[in-house]
Amino acid sequence: MAGCLHLLPVQLGPADTATTHPPGVLTTLQRLDYFIVERAKTARADLRKLGHPAQLASLVIEELAAQPEKLDQAELDRLLAPILAGKDGGLMSEAGCPAVADPGALVVRRAHELGIQVVPHVGPSSLLLALMASGLNGQSFRFHGYLPIQTEARQRAIAEIEAESARRNQTELFIETPYRNLAMLDALLLHLKDSTRLCIASGLTTTEERITTRSVADWKRTRKQAGQPDLDRQPAIFLLLATTARGDKRR
Amino acid sequence: MAGCLHLLPVQLGPADTATTHPPGVLTTLQRLDYFIVERAKTARADLRKLGHPAQLASLVIEELAAQPEKLDQAELDRLLAPILAGKDGGLMSEAGCPAVADPGALVVRRAHELGIQVVPHVGPSSLLLALMASGLNGQSFRFHGYLPIQTEARQRAIAEIEAESARRNQTELFIETPYRNLAMLDALLLHLKDSTRLCIASGLTTTEERITTRSVADWKRTRKQAGQPDLDRQPAIFLLLATTARGDKRR
Question: What is the DSSP letter of A102?
Answer without folding.
Answer: S
